[in-house]
Amino acid sequence: MRTLVLNAGYEPLSVVTSRRAAVLVMHGKASVLAEDLTPIATPTAMVPRPAVILLHHYVRVARRRPAAPSRRSILRRDGRTCTYCQRPAATVDHVIPRARGGDSSWENLVACCGACNARKGSKTLDELGWMLSITPAAPPHHVWMPVELEAPREVWMPFLAHRATH
Which Pfam families match (predicted)? Predict the structure, then answer.
């Protein structure tokens, strides 16, 4: 099970295992804000399984530019939708092919379905008469946070709503 860790200012900081979260709570470094129904069984006791914890001391996080794009981050940015045909995407395509001098930057990578990727090959969009449905770019700085939220749990939503308003 995963546990959302909130910084002392209530902003999402990371996601850890519930066992790690329970250790932070037992050592007095965090408080439980929400629990799961299934407790953690220890040799001597049943400990509530934390779903969301709040650190007692603020952890300073260095704000950085987005990391280099990865397949996972490009698919997330583009909503797992093919930029060419709008079908579900599972791969990434270079808009300007690498064989033609294209780089692996946020601005040159897009989500793509397998069929479009195979059809495009190392051709340019002009050669195919294709257009992009989006303008690929690095996500805005405020979108980046140290916690990866591929599939946020329902119990986390009240704590993530606070982040969306700031």
Answer: HNH_5
Tell which residue, 3, 4, 11, has the closest CA to residue 58: 11
Helix (H, G, I), strand (E, B) or coil at 64: coil
Instruction: Give me Rg for the CA atoms of the chain.
Output: 21
Both tokens of 100, joined, read 């033609």
Q: Where are the domains of the chain?
A: 2-61+146-164, 71-128
Helical segments of 56-156, H only: 71-77, 114-120, 125-128
- Rounded to the nearest 10°, the torsion over CA 112, 117, 119, 120 is 90
Task: Answer yes or no: pTM beyond 0.70.
Answer: no
pLDDT digits (tens, 9 = 90+) for 38-59: 888 888 888 889 999 999 999 9
Of 15, 127, 150, 6, give the one whose Cα is nearest residue 80.
Answer: 150
Helices (H), 29-156: 71-77, 114-120, 125-128
Q: What is the DSSP letter of 66?
A: P
CATH class held by domain 71-128: mainly alpha
